Amino acid sequence: MSEILATQDGGVLTLSFNRPEKMNALTRAMYADLSQGLNEAAGDFGIRAVVLTAEGDHFTAGNDIMDFMNNPPTSDDSEVAKFLSSLLNFPKPLLAAVKGNAVGVGTTMLLHCDVVIAGTTANFSMPFASLGLVPEAGSSFLFPQLVGYQRAARIFMTGESFDADSAIEMGLAAAKDVDPLAHVMKIAQHIAEQPPQAIINTKALLKAKNHDAVAAIMKAEFEIFAMALQSDEAMEAFMKFMSKKGK
């Protein structure tokens, strides 16, 4: 069974994280499947919108720490870098339905989505600094732009989490629903019925101001993240995290 499920309903493609027994922690293989799914959808005229969601009770626990420790993604052509690039450059509407925990990249990827619907259980966090790392996916640029510098600094530097209501108030999510997937699919289907080129051009215009800046920031973040990943500080933080998890 694939750890990324792809299903199409009319013009809407759904990509679902399918590793519920591990809270959908993302491995390099999952990143590869996600970027392939997005890149293929970008070139498929029949797909008008893509929805990101997850099986089980949680969106994603973020990166699979053991997978990261065994195979650190330190090069520009790693699966993680390719996924982040496919997110940044995806030309069609990208939507997400989030329930339970959305940790690390589980929150930062949402900054690239056009519409996010949060479940009532949704809980967002970006504990990069707590793991000896730095923000990624352009979040060091996009998040303060969204919520203001002070709030972004506090959230990044403390690793604190926030709920669906806070995500809506910040502008990270559009709405809250007990069934976020049903809600987001309704919006996606509505978008899929619009004139497709007009939708693509509208997204391009909405993203134009930030696109090149985000690309440059993502490159810098990735270089620092890769160095941090190989540091003693990160290794110590990872070990501490794993021992807490084991208790």
Description of the molecule:
The protein has a single domain, classed as 2-enoyl-CoA Hydratase, Chain A, domain 1. It has ten helices and nine strands. The two termini are 30 Å apart. It has helices at residues 28-43, 65-70, 79-88, 105-108, 139-147, 149-158, 164-170, 180-192, 196-229, 232-246, and strands at 4-9, 12-17, 49-54, 94-98, 101-103, 115-119, 123-125, 162-163, 175-177. It is found in: Peroxisome. GO terms for molecular function: delta(3)-delta(2)-enoyl-CoA isomerase activity. Keywords: Isomerase, Peroxisome.
Number of domains: 1
What is the count of helical runs? 10
Q: What is the number of beta strands?
A: 9
CATH superfamily, by name, is 2-enoyl-CoA Hydratase, Chain A, domain 1
Chart the SSEs and their pairings.
Blueprint: E1 4-9, E2 12-17, H1 28-43, E3 49-54, H2 65-70, H3 79-88, E4 94-98, E5 101-103, H4 105-108, E6 115-119, E7 123-125, H5 139-147, H6 149-158, E8 162-163, H7 164-170, E9 175-177, H8 180-192, H9 196-229, H10 232-246
Parallel strand pairs: 2-3, 3-4, 4-6, 5-7, 6-9
Antiparallel strand pairs: 1-2, 7-8
Helix pairs in contact: 1-3, 3-9, 5-6, 5-9
InterPro entries: ClpP/crotonase-like_dom_sf (IPR029045), ECH/Chromodomain_protein (IPR051053), Enoyl-CoA_hydra/iso (IPR001753)
Subcellular location: Peroxisome
GO cellular component, one term: peroxisome
